[in-house]
Amino acid sequence: MAETSEVQLAQAMTMNCYAHAYVARAAFGEFRRGDRGSLLIVTHALGDQPAAGSGVYALACAATLGLARTLLTEHDEPTVAITTLLRGGAAFDASAGNLANASAEADEAEADALAALAVRVAASPAGEVTGRVLSAADAP
Fold first, then answer.
1. pLDDT tens track for 39-69
2. Least confident segment among 62-66, 68-72, 94-98, 132-136
3. Closest CA to 41 of 80, 91, 99
4. Do 59 and 101 contact (CB within 8 A), yes or no?
5. Rounded to whole angstroms, how far apart are CA atoms 55 and 66?
6. What percentage of the chain has pLDDT greater than the value 70?
7. Rg of the chain over CA atoms, in angstroms?
8. Higher-confidence residue: 14 or 140?
9. Closest CA to 106 of 48, 57, 46
10. Which domain holds residue 87?
11. Mean pLDDT score of the chain, rounded to an integer?
12. Is there a smaller number of Cβ atoms within 10 Å at the N or the C end of the chain?
C-alpha cells in the first residue's frame, strides 16, 4: 500500500465502493416508489480475507462489505432485499507477484456458479436473501 498513488487509491475506491454507494442511493429511491426491490452487491472475497499484495483492492472491497452492512441497518424493509455476492472466494495460492493472475483464475473457475447464484438471489423473496453474504460455495 505504501507505493500506491493518490490516483490509484481514488480509482480503487471509486470503482469498488463508491460505485455501489451511488447505485444504492439511486435504487432505494426507486424501491420506495415501487414498494419493493432487490440490491445485489458484488465484491471480492479479498475484502473479507486479504492476501499479500492486495492492499488497496482489499481495502476497497472491505469498504464495500461495510457499505452492505450499513445499507442493511438503514433500510430494514421487509420488501427490499440487500444481498452480497463475493467473487474470488475459491482458495487460491497467491503472492504479491501473482495476485492478479490467481484472482482471475479463481473468478473464471467460479463464473458459472456465481451466475446461477445471482439468478437464484434475484428470484428469491426478499426475506430469504436479505443480509446474506454468499459465495460460489453457496451456489445450487
1. 999 998 889 988 777 889 889 999 999 999 9
2. 94-98
3. 80
4. no
5. 16
6. 92
7. 16
8. 14
9. 46
10. 6-138
11. 87
12. C
Report the candidate in 116, 92, 96 with the shortest Cα–Cα distance to residue 44: 92
User: From CA 43, how far away is CA 62, in angstroms rounded?
Assistant: 9
Q: Residue 108 maps to which CATH number?
A: 3.40.50.720
Secondary structure of residue 77 in the 3-state scheme: coil
C-alpha span between 15 and 57 (Å, rounded): 10
Cell 492478479: give the residue.
100
Cell digits for 113?
456458479
When divided into structural domains, the chain yields a total of 1
Q: Is residue 133 part of a domain?
A: yes
Grid cell listed for 140: 445450487
